[in-house]
């Protein structure tokens, strides 16, 4: 590793020594050199504001939040012939968040520090060549103004001091992690040219959407382009972001400051060398994009497509929502239900009777029923039921997983019948990633809690009410 570049990351991220100004009429071309393949990057984040929720749809509640975090990684650009755009090795990745007085720290485990970056239609997608991120781990490192996309800030033609340029909506969506941008008045201006740097200032507003809800940004930024190394070496962005409440996420109004320093190095660190990368399959696929979820208390794990979001969890149950392009498609409840005696199993016919009893007057008919054994040896029952709730045609898909010891879990999907095509049998991939984990040691609980845990099988699985699917 280039020692000088490593040292540069520990100087103040808000200070650069001024260079000697070049002639004002000098024009420069700022294009990132694809030959600049190796760099070390440090990102510092500070966020402060409020989070908004409206859990019952009647009363808006706001909570104060603050976040600080740091990322530091070596990044190797792999070029057009590689299956991915870049590979990173993280030395540091953490964020401390305080939400409504509660502290939470997120870090990247040592086993997940080798990270691949794919550019899918211009959008950065991060994944692990081996293993899977949790939602929190992915959100930690997938930040605005990524070093891989910083070239989007640059003009397409030569410019001189005082020249101004604008931005395409799609490029801003990629830079600021938005699903789409409808309009923007962002402008950048070349402020100074020195022997080694071109310095720019950027400001304006962005009207866009993320998670299907309105998201407005006001941005002021300073960007330095290194004329010698042909790379964006410095981004300091102040971002005011106002996002509405989504089906699967709270809204927020925050002020964020992101500082990114990137320094080229002559050779990659050992973890990113040709010899080491030859041992790793870097080819992206849908399986590598799955997210890992574990409920240690309830004793189960899942591999989820990224459109699924965990909404709430208790010691017995976790609730998820599937949102695609802003539309709420389905809700899913995974519940640890009462055990049977070792060796006992519920028949498919008895399971159907339980489902019909659970749905009560909402039940219409069974569409299908099947049973089988999973790849990890669990017995699986699956039943699809159609019916009507609150005058709305609904489809319910029930799963029951059990093992020889008598442990049982129900998975229940609820969706409007009209959304079945968009759902595209998403239950099968969701349930296909289910596994039982070791249960924690039993805790002494109040009798009332014990009684609640022993509700009839599948009764607790009815929790997803049809009203949550209303738009």
Give the gist of this structure.
With 471 residues, this protein is mainly β. It is built from eight helices and 25 strands.
Describe the overall structure:
The protein is mainly beta and 471 residues long. The protein has two domains: 22-277, Roll (Lipovitellin-phosvitin complex, beta-sheet shell regions); 291-469, Protein Transport Mog1p, Chain A. Helix content is 11%, strand content 46%. It contains eight helices and 25 strands. The strands form four sheets. Strands 2, 3, 4, 5, 6, 7, 9, 10, 11, 12, 13, 14 and 15 form a 13-stranded antiparallel β-sheet that branches. Strands 18-19-20-24-23-22-21 form a seven-stranded antiparallel β-sheet. β22 (379-389) and β23 form a beta hairpin. The protein is elongated and about 85 Å long. Mean pLDDT is 90; it is low at 1-20 and 447-471.
Number of E strands:
25
Strand % is over 45%
Helix content: 10-25%
Return Rg in Å. 26 Å
Note the total helix count: 8
Annotated CATH topology of the largest domain: Lipovitellin-phosvitin complex, beta-sheet shell regions
Overall geometric form: elongated
Please indicate the count of domains: 2
Topology:
Blueprint: H1 3-8, E1 27-28, E2 38-53, E3 61-77, E4 86-99, E5 102-107, E6 114-120, E7 123-127, H2 135-141, E8 159-160, E9 164-166, H3 169-175, E10 180-184, E11 187-193, E12 197-210, E13 213-226, E14 231-243, E15 251-264, H4 274-277, E16 291-295, E17 300-304, E18 308-313, E19 317-324, E20 327-337, H5 348-359, E21 363-373, E22 379-389, E23 392-402, E24 408-416, H6 420-423, H7 426-432, E25 435-436, H8 447-453
Antiparallel strand pairs: 1-8, 2-3, 2-15, 3-4, 4-5, 4-6, 6-7, 9-11, 10-12, 11-12, 12-13, 13-14, 14-15, 16-17, 17-25, 18-19, 19-20, 20-24, 21-22, 22-23, 23-24
């Amino acid at each position: 590793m280039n020692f000088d570049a490593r040292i540069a990351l520990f100087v103040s991220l808000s200070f650069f020594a001024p260079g000697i100004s070049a002639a004002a009429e000098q024009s420069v071309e700022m294009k990132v050199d694809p030959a600049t393949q190796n760099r070390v990057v440090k990102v510092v984040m500070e966020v402060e504001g409020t989070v908004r929720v409206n859990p019952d749809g009647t009363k808006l509640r706001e909570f104060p939040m603050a976040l600080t975090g740091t990322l530091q990684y070596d990044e190797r650009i792999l070029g057009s012939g590689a299956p991915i755009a870049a590979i990173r090795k993280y030395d540091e990745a953490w964020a401390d968040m305080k939400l409504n007085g509660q502290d939470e720290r997120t870090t990247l485990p040592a086993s997940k520090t080798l990270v691949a970056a794919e550019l899918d239609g211009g959008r950065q997608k991060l994944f692990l060549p081996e293993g899977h991120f949790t939602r929190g781990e992915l959100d930690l490192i997938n930040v605005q103004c990524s070093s891989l996309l910083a070239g989007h800030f640059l003009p397409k033609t030569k410019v001189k001091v005082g020249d101004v340029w604008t931005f395409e909506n799609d490029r801003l969506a990629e830079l600021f992690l938005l699903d789409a941008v409808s309009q923007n008045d962002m402008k950048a201006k070349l402020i100074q040219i020195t022997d080694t740097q071109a310095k720019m200032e950027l400001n304006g507003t962005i009207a866009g959407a993320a998670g299907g809800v309105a998201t407005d940004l006001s941005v002021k930024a300073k960007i330095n382009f290194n004329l010698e190394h042909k790379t964006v070496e410095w981004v300091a962005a102040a971002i005011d972001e106002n996002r509405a409440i989504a089906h699967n996420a709270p809204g927020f109004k925050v002020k964020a400051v992101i500082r990114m320093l990137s320094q080229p190095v002559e050779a990659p660190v050992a973890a990113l060398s040709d010899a080491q990368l030859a041992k790793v399959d870097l080819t992206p696929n849908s399986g590598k994009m799955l997210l890992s979820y574990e409920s240690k208390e309830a004793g189960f794990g899942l591999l989820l497509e990224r459109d699924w979001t965990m909404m709430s969890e208790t010691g017995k149950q976790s609730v998820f929502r599937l949102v695609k392009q802003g539309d709420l498609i389905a809700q899913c409840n995974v519940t640890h239900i009462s055990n049977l005696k070792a060796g006992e199993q519920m028949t498919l016919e008895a399971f159907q009777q339980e489902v019909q009893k659970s749905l009560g007057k909402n039940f219409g008919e069974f569409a299908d029923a099947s049973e089988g054994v999973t790849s990890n040896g669990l017995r699986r029952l699956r039943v699809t039921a159609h019916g009507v709730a609150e005058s709305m045609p609904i489809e319910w898909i029930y799963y029951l997983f059990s093992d020889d010891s008598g442990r049982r879990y129900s998975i229940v999907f609820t969706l409007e019948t009209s959304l079945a095509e968009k759902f595209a049998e998403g239950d099968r991939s969701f349930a296909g990633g289910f596994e039982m984990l070791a249960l924690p040691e039993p805790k002494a609980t109040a009798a009332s809690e014990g009684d609640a845990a022993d509700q009839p099988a599948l009764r607790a699985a009815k929790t997803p009410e049809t009203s949550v699917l209303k738009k």
